[in-house]
Amino acid sequence: MKARARIVTGTAVRILWFALPIGCLAAEPAFTPVQPQLFAAPGGQSNAWGDFDNDGDLDLVITFRNAPVRLYENSPDGFEDIGAAAGLPTDGGNPRSVAWADYDNDGDLDIYIAYSGLDEPANRLFRNNLTDGQFGFTEVGEAAGVALRGQIRQVSFVDYDADGDVDLYVALRGSTNRLLQNNAGVFTDITRETGIAEPRRTVGACWFDMDADGDLDLFTANQNGDRDGMFRNDAGRFTDVAIELDMDQPRRPLADGSVGCAVTDFDTDGDLDLYVAAYGDDKLYRNDGKGNFTDVAPAMGVANHHHIVTGVWGDVQHDGRPDLYTVGYINGQPGTADYLYVNLGDRFANRLPDNIARNDTDHGVQWADFDRDGDLDLALAANDPAGSHYLYRNDLPVPVAGRSIQVLVLDLQGHYTRAGSEVRVFRAGTTELLGLRLVDTGSGYNAQNAKPVHIGLATMGKVDVLVTTMSAAGRQTTRFDGIDPRTLEGRPFTAKVGN
C-alpha cells in the first residue's frame, strides 16, 4: 500500500522527553574500520556524502591538503577512488570546503570545492555530466559566477528566497561573507542588498528556520574573539539578532571563538536546537519553539572548554535520541581528543570507543548509512601528517540496525534542492513525535552533504512522515501516512515535496 501525501497547515505534537535511568544504558557504541588500507592517507580536511551516480547508495568526496581530491565511488565490491578519472582536482593546494548540490536543477549532484588563501586557486564548481549520458564532471566555476577567492570556510547551497533553486552562501574567514543568488544556473552577488553582509571571521555557518516563520535564517560561528551572528530572515532581508537573543558570545579573548555549528532536535520537543563548537566554551542552545534560545551545555554535560572544531548529530544506537560527535584540534598537537556524546535523555555521556580514540580526527566528520543496513556509519578526516581519513562501520546488531527510517527529500521533479527542510516522524495515526531532523545545510567541517535524513526508532512499526519546506507562501507541510520502514529494505523513503 502506497503512502498517501497531502498538504497540511499545522500539526499537533505530543512531546516525547524521557531519560534512561542510570545503569539501564544501551550497549556501548562499537565500530569496525572499513578498507583501512584505502582510507589511510593523511591530510584529509572536509568530507561529504552524496549519490553522484544516482545508483541508490552514497558516495564520499574528501578534500586533502596538498593532494588530489578523492571521490570514493560506493559499489557492492567496496569503495574505489575515482576522483581523478571523474575530473576532480589533482593539483593539491588547500581545498578547505566541499558541498554537494543540484545547482542546475538537472537531476544529478554537482560538487563545489572551495580553497583557503588568496594565493590558492579560485573556488571551483564541477557540473555533473550524468544527465548528459557522460561520466564525470566539468569545471564551470567562472561561467557560473562562483570562482571566489579568499580564506574560504563553510559553503552551503540553500534556497534562501524559496524560488525553487539553490543559492550559495560562502563564509570567508578573512573578509565579508557572500550570498550569491541562483538565476538559471548563474549566480549573482546579493550580499549587500539583502543585509546579510557578515564582516567577522566566520568558520561555521548553519541555516535553519529558527523562528518557525517560513524562511531560512542563518547562524554564523565566528573566530578570533569575534561575536557570533544570528541573521533573521524577513522576506529575504536579514537582521542580526544575536545580541537580542543572547547568542553573540561577547568579550571573548582573541584566541577563542566559535568554529562549527550543528542543528537538530536533540530533546525531541518538535523544534530545532543548535550546538556550537568552539575554541573556548561550547554551547548547546535549546530552542523554546518561538526562536528564543537558552544555553544548556553545562546542564547536559557538553560544555567542553577545549579546542573543538565541529560537531555532528546522529542517533548512533537507535534509541530515538540524537547523539553528538565532536572533533578536537590543536595545531601541532596530534591526539587532541574527540568525544562521542551519547544522549541519555537528561544528559550526555562520552562513549567514544577505544579504537576510534586511538585514531582521532581533527577536521572532517560525517555520519551516513553507506552500507544501507539502517544504522549510521562514521567518516573522519585528519589533516595532520600522522592522521588519516578513516571510515568506520557501525556494528549495531542486525535487528537494531534496521530499526530506523531514512527520508530523502526531493522537489516535485525529483531533484535535490530542498536543503533546510524539516522532517518529522510520528508513530502512525498518532501525534507521538519520534524525531525531527533537518535536511543538511552545512555540517561536519566546512562541508554539506546531499543525503537522506536518518531517524532511529526505539521500536519498529508504521510511521507518518511530515516534511516542512520553506516556500514563498511560508511553511508548507506535506504528509505521508502509514509508511512501514520494514518494507524499505535499506532504501530511504523518497518524499517529493513542492511549493
Describe this structure in words.
The chain is mostly beta strands and 499 residues long. The protein starts with a strand and ends with a strand.
Query: Based on DSSP secondary structure assignment, what is the total number of beta strands?
Result: 37
Distance separating the two termini:
26 Å
Helix content bin: under 10%
Subunit organisation of the chains: single chain
SSE order and pairing:
Layout: E1 4-8, E2 31-33, E3 44-50, E4 59-64, E5 67-75, E6 78-81, E7 95-101, E8 110-117, E9 124-128, E10 137-139, H1 141-144, E11 150-158, E12 167-172, E13 178-183, E14 186-189, H2 191-194, E15 202-208, E16 217-222, E17 229-234, E18 237-240, E19 257-264, E20 273-281, E21 283-287, E22 293-295, H3 297-300, E23 305-314, E24 323-328, E25 339-343, E26 348-350, H4 354-357, E27 364-368, E28 377-381, E29 391-394, H5 398-401, E30 404-411, E31 422-427, E32 433-438, E33 447-448, E34 453-456, E35 463-471, E36 474-483, E37 493-497
Parallel strand pairs: 7-33, 30-37
Antiparallel strand pairs: 1-36, 2-29, 3-4, 4-5, 5-6, 7-8, 8-9, 8-11, 9-10, 11-12, 12-13, 13-14, 15-16, 16-17, 17-18, 19-20, 20-21, 20-23, 21-22, 23-24, 24-25, 25-26, 27-28, 28-29, 30-34, 31-32, 31-35, 35-36
